[in-house]
Amino acid sequence: MAERTESNQTVPPEGQPARGRPRDAERDRALLAATLQVLQESGYGGLTTAAVAKRAGVSTATLYRRWRSKEDLVVGTAVSWASDLGPQPDTGSLRGDLAVLLRDKAETLEGPGGRLLHILIGEAAHNEALARVLDSAIVQPVRDRAAEVVRRAVARGDIPPLEDAHVLADLVVGSMVSRLFLTPDVTYQGATDGPTSGEAAISELLPFLLRALGAQPG
Q1: Which domains does the chain have, with CATH numbers?
Q2: Among residues 119, 178, 199, 200, which one has the fewest Cβ atoms lying within 10 Å of its Cβ?
């Protein structure tokens, strides 16, 4: 059966395509950007689809043709803003591969995707759907890339084999989130003539990760 939204709009059951005209990519982008803005201002609890639609300059009917509910909208925004890491480039060394991985993660966390992640981490603790999307859209791509970094390093003889190659991703994600979200060094905030927080975190974490993997940092 169809369900009704907070604006009393009837939407199709999950898995059925919405009827009507093809989706407008520009309106999609406007709605996703508006969702991020409202989340930043009001948090997840204060976000409503009506507020997002008004901010994007569209009707709630337009929004509901794209997302069935507030939760679906937020999940879609998280997926949209998560950086597409793509294939891990082979730099020819473990140090180089780790530096690229850390740099990509820092750029994600310091950009719109990171601001959204910061907002949703607390909500995901008691919202299973959000927890799943954060894992699949943000954590799992890093785990896959990290595992590839480890496999190449082992094949080159840079490090001994690891029982679980994905453990590197846990170190990368955990340390970068902690460094950029929980304990940012205030001396780097807003600096114009020095390293950003992400760059500072990379320089601090790279030698540690090399040692943790059994490689020489030098």
Answers
A1: 23-69 (1.10.10.60), 84-213 (1.10.357.10)
A2: 178
Can you say how many angstroms the Cα of residue 136 is from the centroid of all Cα atoms in its chain?
A: 9
The sign of the CA dihedral 119, 115, 96, 135 is positive
**Which of 153, 31, 168, 193 is closest to 102 using CA atoms?**
168
Owner of token pair 């299973």: 128
Q: What is the pTM of this model?
A: 0.70
The rounded Cα 210 to chain-centroid distance in angstroms is 24
Residue 125 burial (CB count, 10 A) = 9
3-state SS, one letter per residue, for 69-122: CHHHHHHHHHHHHCCCCCCCCCCCCHHHHHHHHHHHHHHHHHCHHHHHHHHHHH
pLDDT digits 0-9 by tens, 111-165: 777 778 778 888 888 888 888 888 887 778 888 888 999 999 999 999 999 888 8
Q: Are 159 and 153 in contact (CB under 8 A)?
A: yes
Instruction: Name every residue whose Cβ is closer than 8 Å to that of residue 210 and which is 6 or more positions away in sequence.
Output: 94, 95, 98, 216, 217
List Cβ neighbours of 160 (8 Å cut-off, separation of 6 or more).
154, 214
